[in-house]
Design brief:
With 366 residues, this protein is of the alpha/beta class. It has 2 domains: 3-117 and 355-365, Enolase-like, N-terminal domain (Enolase-like, domain 1), CATH 3.30.390.10; 122-352, Enolase-like C-terminal domain (TIM Barrel), CATH 3.20.20.120. It is 37% helix and 23% strand. It is built from 13 helices and 19 strands. Helix 1 packs across helix 3 (98-115), helix 2 packs antiparallel against helix 3 (98-115) and helix 7 (199-208) runs parallel beside helix 8 (223-230). It is globular. The chain binds magnesium ion. Magnesium ion binds at residues 192, 194, 217-218, 240, 262.
């Protein structure tokens, strides 16, 4: 089986709640890129990459499309079934830019699943957990408004919450206290600064909320700042943005820098590399949030398949991004119910892109 056509689509994903704010950033919609890969055997795969705006990670939407345009002509004629070979080929054509390669890799996993008539989770290790625990994001807002969101999200069945902080430390302390006061028994709360605090500000916050049952996620931009915060607090620490390679994971493990990691599929370069990262975490005893930067039904399906094939003991939570958007880009996305989601059991990712929503391709290569 050979890749015969690559088509790339652009779609905006508007926020159902109007906007999404974290650290010092706020957006009303995210620019997503969908790739459809066709083969000479008539099997088609779909992938997606959606950076969270241009200043969250070293990734941006136009860059994803430019990178795919750079790679695509050389991938025509390649086998989509030999995932390690394909990734080796992509690394030989373009250094770095893992998020560019992620959508291509995901689409080829979709093709592989369809070729062997099995869902992707089976190929990633099997259906180890039959439902995937979700967290609900509580976007950065006024402290009282954020606390009120807990009531709304409780009613939807959510018990795990990731509140966005990383702005003014005094207000963030108030935010965390007010939200924590609304927790129900058994709830889990994380305060995610998304790199937003300077080290001194992070130390003020973790000191002031040291009596609360709350996880602290990626307090500062650099690994070294996060490590300093880690050594200052006994709250559990999740590292996210700085965990961009196996080397960083191993360094964090050796330093005892975190209790959990947040694994984002596109930051690592797709499902092939995310599986490697996931398996190493399990071997090291590190529990994971499994998600991505952002996306619609296709990204969320990839997340769900990886999470389904991860033992529950090692899976902290995931995000159902399509649940936050007003635009549906594919049929067959994971079904969200009561704070959990389930991926389709159909072959591949189990999603069918809505071509009426995606429109004409931005470009195509044959
Ligand atoms: Mg995070």
């Amino acid at each position: 089986m050979k890749i015969s056509r690559i088509a790339v689509y652009q779609v905006d994903l508007p926020m159902r709640e109007g906007s999404y704010s974290w650290a010092s950033q706020s957006f009303s919609a995210f620019d997503s890129t969908v790739i459809v890969i066709e083969t000479d055997a008539g099997v088609t795969g779909v992938g997606e990459v959606c950076p969270l705006g241009p200043t969250y990670l070293p990734a941006y939407a136009e860059g994803a499309r430019a990178g795919i345009a750079k790679l695509a002509p050389d991938l025509i004629g390649e086998s989509p079934l030999e995932l390690d070979r394909l990734n080796y080929r992509m690394d030989g054509l373009l250094k770095g830019h893992p998020y560019v390669k992620s959508a291509i890799d995901i689409a080829c996993w979709d093709i592989l699943g369809k070729a062997v008539d099995q869902p992707v989770y089976l190929l990633l290790g099997g259906l180890i957990q039959d439902s995937v625990k979700l967290f609900k994001v509580v976007g950065r807002a006024d402290p009282a408004e954020m606390a009120d969101k807990l009531d709304e999200y409780h009613a939807l069945g959510f018990k795990q919450f990731q509140m966005k902080v990383g702005e003014d430390p005094a207000v963030d302390i108030e935010r965390i206290r007010k939200v924590a006061a609304r927790l129900a028994p058994g709830d889990i709360l994380g305060a995610d600064a998304n790199t937003g605090w300077r080290q001194h500000a992070a130390l003020r916050v973790v000191d002031a909320i040291g009596d609360l049952d709350v996880y602290i996620e990626q307090p500062c931009l650099t690994y070294e700042e996060c490590l300093a915060v880690r050594r200052h607090t006994d709250r559990p620490i999740i590292l996210d943005e700085c965990m961009d390679s196996l080397q960083m994971l191993l360094r964090g493990y050796a330093d005892g820098a975190m209790d959990l990691v947040n694994l984002k599929i596109s930051r690592i370069g797709g499902l092939t590399r995310a599986r490697q990262f996931r398996d190493l975490c399990i071997s090291l005893g590190i529990v994971m949030t499994i998600e991505d930067s952002w996306g619609g039904e296709i990204t969320t399906a990839a997340i769900a398949h990886l999470a389904h094939s991860t033992p529950r003991d090692f899976h902290f939570q995931s995000s159902a991004f399509h649940d936050y958007a007003t635009v549906k880009i594919a049929e067959g996305g994971p079904v969200v119910d009561g704070g959990y989601m389930r991926a389709s059991a159909r072959p591949g990712l189990g999603v069918e892109p809505r071509m009426d929503v995606l429109g004409a391709p931005v470009f195509e290569v044959t």
